[in-house]
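Duplicate of #3305? Posting structure anyway:
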């Protein structure tokens, strides 16, 4: 079986490599010539554990190919996946220009039946727009070639994407014809040996499922953060509260970890897009508006704690441990660390930041956000201990494994002050207090 995947971002590249791992002939397409050339050399543009080895192995075996030309990749391809970006527009809606451009290109150049599958996260109704675009392009050519559209949203977690793809909780597929269902069944048959389910449904329901799933997870995060903030006011410990409610099987503990808010490429934009979809259809999604508001506020909580402790931050040096929005990725999109650093610099503090993977991405993003503002007072450290040097406070932002058991006496010796603000509640308050630190987490 031969398939084509358009887009070599996080979703497209992981999907292509994993399909190739199962013996499928995969061609990945991207208009970025420099990126394609690097991929051909085995240079991976994103950090994802295990992905570089999988790409190199399947490229060497002749199952994984890279090109900048979708027309060249169409002949013989039974399935074309559209895995291009859908960034938020100014009004919060998903920008579909790239999705529709893929459809136009397919309509202009297809010569035989093809199943065009949208893997990008797109609003309900996108498949119908894709179908219309293909028909318009065929009409311009004066041809009528059979095709189908389908929806196959991804549910990959950054940092565990390969495992999620190879052994997922479920695969959601929206189809509207028996032929499309048969093709998608055949495509995913190798994965059925792992005993997971392919859930077929209509296309609008599949499109909505992706948004609803991410919105629910974002809601749980904002909920527990709201509870954590209240716990601080009333003298309760949110960690105990989490255990108490998590033992209820109707609730569980997943995505109920208090912290400094969610970030990344999915939750923020998908919540915005779903709110916008509701507005377009006269449905006021009040819960999700609150989820977004709580999350935006939560990203500032560590800075608020610093101000509460020190008052004026001018002249203070703050160590920031972690820049990625979560561990095991270099993704800093909507990362709480960026909001935090921007507020610290604006308040007159100096920042010493360290991340084992995401420094380059963070540096590029902050330079774009801050211009020259951060040049003087933002320094990039080589380790958590280097970051703590002469710091008045240490802020744990991303819970990388290597941050879990620091040499605290060495940290204390390096610091000028003794304040530790734990944005992920991974440290033990009694242990740090015994070592002379002032410790504060989230909701305890």
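Output from current build:
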């Amino acid at each position: 079986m031969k398939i084509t995947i358009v887009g070599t971002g996080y979703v497209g590249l992981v999907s292509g490599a994993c399909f190739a791992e199962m013996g499928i002939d995969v061609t990945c397409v991207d208009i970025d010539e420099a990126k394609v050339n690097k991929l051909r050399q085995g240079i991976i543009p994103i950090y994802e554990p295990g992905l570089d080895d999988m790409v190199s192995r399947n490229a060497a075996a002749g199952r994984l190919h890279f090109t900048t030309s979708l027309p060249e990749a169409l002949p013989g391809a039974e399935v074309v996946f559209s895995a291009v970006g859908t960034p938020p527009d100014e009004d919060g809606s998903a920008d579909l220009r790239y999705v529709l451009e893929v459809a136009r290109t397919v309509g202009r150049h297809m010569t035989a039946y093809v199943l065009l599958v949208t893997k990008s996260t797109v609003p309900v109704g996108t498949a119908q727009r894709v179908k219309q675009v293909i028909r318009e392009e065929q009409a311009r050519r004066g041809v009528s070639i059979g095709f189908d559209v389908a929806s196959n949203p991804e549910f990959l977690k950054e940092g565990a994407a390969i495992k999620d793809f190879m052994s997922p909780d479920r695969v959601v597929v929206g189809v509207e014809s028996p032929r499309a269902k048969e093709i998608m069944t055949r495509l995913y048959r190798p994965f059925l040996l792992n005993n997971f389910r392919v859930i077929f449904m209509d296309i609008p329901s599949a499109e909505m499922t992706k948004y609803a799933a991410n919105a629910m997870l974002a809601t749980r995060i904002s909920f527990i953060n709201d509870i954590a903030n209240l716990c601080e006011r009333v003298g309760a410990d949110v960690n105990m509260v989490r255990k108490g409610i998590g033992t209820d099987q109707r609730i569980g503990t997943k995505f109920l970890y208090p912290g400094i808010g969610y970030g990344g490429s999915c939750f923020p934009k998908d919540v915005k897009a779903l709110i916008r979809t509701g507005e377009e259809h006269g449905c006021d999604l009040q819960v999700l508006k609150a989820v977004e508001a709580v999350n935006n506020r939560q990203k500032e909580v560590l800075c608020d704690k610093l101000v509460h402790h020190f008052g004026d931050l001018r002249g203070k040096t703050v160590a920031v441990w972690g820049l990625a929005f979560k561990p095991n990725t270099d993704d800093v999109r909507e990362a709480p660390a960026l909001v935090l650093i921007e507020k610290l610099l604006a308040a007159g503090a100096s920042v010493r930041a360290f991340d084992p993977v995401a420094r380059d991405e963070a540096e590029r993003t902050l330079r774009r956000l801050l211009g020259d503002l951060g040049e003087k007072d933002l320094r990039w450290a080589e380790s958590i201990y280097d970051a703590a040097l002469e710091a008045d406070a240490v802020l744990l932002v991303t819970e990388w494994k290597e941050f879990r058991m620091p040499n605290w006496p060495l940290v204390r010796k390096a610091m000028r002050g003794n304040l530790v603000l734990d944005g992920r509640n991974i440290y033990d308050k009694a242990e740090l207090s015994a070592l002379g630190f002032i410790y504060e987490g989230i909701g305890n």
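Confirmed duplicate; merging threads. The mean pLDDT is 94. The first strand starts at residue 2 and ends at 6.
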